[in-house]
Amino acid sequence: MNQHQVMALAAMCQVAKQVQKVAQYGRCDEHDLSTLLSSIVQTSPASPEDVYQGTQNLRDGYKTLMAQLSAGAQKDVEIVKYVGGLMQLERALSANSKSLNELGKRIDDIHRRLDHFAITDDSVVAGLADIYSSVLSPLGHRIQVYGKPELLKQQLTQNKIRALLLAGIRSAVLWRQMGGKRRHFFFCKKKNSRHC
């Protein structure tokens, strides 16, 4: 893997880690949330690093990725499953030009709203979640999210998770653009989940 493939994979791992935190505890790291959600509106970056305003913002993702790839280390099955699911969903998206066009238009709308609101504002997060629900979920590759049922029922939790998954799709797009292949990651199933 080249450095940009590793960076995109680290970003997907960081998304997966934050989804875990929201699903299990109802909260996540605000700086990571801002970094990841901001990547969604980076549609014409000067360099791959600009998608995340520099690789230093992906420290947690790199750490998670290293733990996943280390020989003999205990693998986090949820992380592997989330990353594999994001790659699968991105493949379905890239094969659907109508959905790609709709995604581009909806992201432009969000970009305009950022003149008045922060990327982590609840209304913007809800808008990003709606893009995920209406453009990506219908593609049929639903990602199971594991967490506390009482948290997963809450609208705010669902919005954050879906907005983060949309950021994960952005990273999966970058991964594919940089020549990444899904076979680097494999995944298996577990109980107590909710489909997003």
In sequence order, what are the helices and strands, one letter per element?
Answer: HHHHHHEHHE
Unreliable stretches covering 5 or more consecutive residues: 184-196
Strand content: under 5%
Instruction: Kindly report the average pLDDT value.
Output: 89
**Cα distance spanning the termini:** 30 Å
Overall geometry: globular
The value of Rg in angstroms is 15 Å
Please give the share of residues in helix. 55-70%
Strand order of the largest sheet: 1-2
Number of strands: 2
The chain-level structural class is mainly alpha
Number of helices: 8
Q: Largest beta sheet, briefly? A: 2 strands, antiparallel
Organism: Pseudoalteromonas undina
Subcellular location: Cytoplasm; Cell membrane
Family: Belongs to the HflD family.
Protein name: High frequency lysogenization protein HflD homolog
Outline:
The protein has helices at residues 3-25, 30-40, 59-69, 77-94, 97-113, 122-136, 149-152, 155-177, and strands at residues 144-146, 193-195. By secondary structure, the chain is mainly alpha-helical. Strands 1-2 form a two-stranded antiparallel sheet.
